[in-house]
Amino acid sequence: MWAAVDAADVVIHAGDWVSEAALDALEARAARLVGVYGNNDGEALRARLPEVARADLDGVRVAVVHETGSSKGRERRCSLAFPDVDVLVFGHSHIPWDSTTASGLRLLNPGSPTDRRRRPTHTYMTADATDGTLTAVTLHHL
């Protein structure tokens, strides 16, 4: 994971840091970090991180949030909640997700490199943002 962090222009973390040490380590290594707190993050992490983060990545408007609710109706719900972004990165379930809503919003959940839950492998995603377009979204298995 550290090699991927070192190679990235931007690291996005969708919450459940669990410890300030994890946030400190990523802040120290990442060229740029965009992150939010999750439901497993205590007061100290919530004081340092927003519930929703937004970034413009080479013209791609990105929002990051931990929780999006049930998978049923997720596309419609997220399109209504985030009409002004191109990509919504979310966490919580630790289950990889990649879909595009009817409105064109791309929904991405990278899974988790540390807690695979019911999944066979730990995962993370990489993507390229160029001239306002998200390309080369890849789910990596650890």
Question: Would you mind describing this structure in some detail?
Answer:
The chain is α/β, with parallel strands linked by helices and 142 residues long. It has a single domain (2-141), classed as Metallo-dependent phosphatases (Purple Acid Phosphatase, chain A, domain 2). The protein has 4 helices and 9 strands; from the N terminus they run αβαβαββαβββββ. The chain has helices at 2-7, 20-29, 43-48, 74-81, and strands at residues 11-13, 33-35, 52-57, 60-65, 87-90, 97-100, 106-109, 123-130, 133-141. The strands form 3 sheets. Strands 3-4-5-7-6 form a 5-stranded mixed sheet, with no helix packed on it. The mean pLDDT is 95.
Output the radius of gyration: 14 Å
Main sheet specs: 5 strands, mixed
Question: Class, according to the CATH hierarchy?
Answer: Alpha Beta
Tell me, briefly, the overall form.
Answer: globular
Low-pLDDT stretches: none
Classify the beta-strand content into a percent band: 25-35%
What's the rounded overall pLDDT mean? Answer: 95
The run of helices and strands is: HEHEHEEHEEEEE
- First-last Cα distance: 9 Å
Number of helices: 4
In total, the number of strands is 9
Classify the oligomer: single chain
Q: Roughly how much helix do the residues carry, as a percent range?
A: 10-25%
Tell me the number of structural domains: 1
Superfamily at the CATH H level?
Metallo-dependent phosphatases
| Second-tier CATH architecture | 4-Layer Sandwich
CATH topology: Purple Acid Phosphatase, chain A, domain 2
Secondary structure class reads alpha/beta
- With strands numbered from the N-terminus, the spatial order across the biggest sheet is 3-4-5-7-6
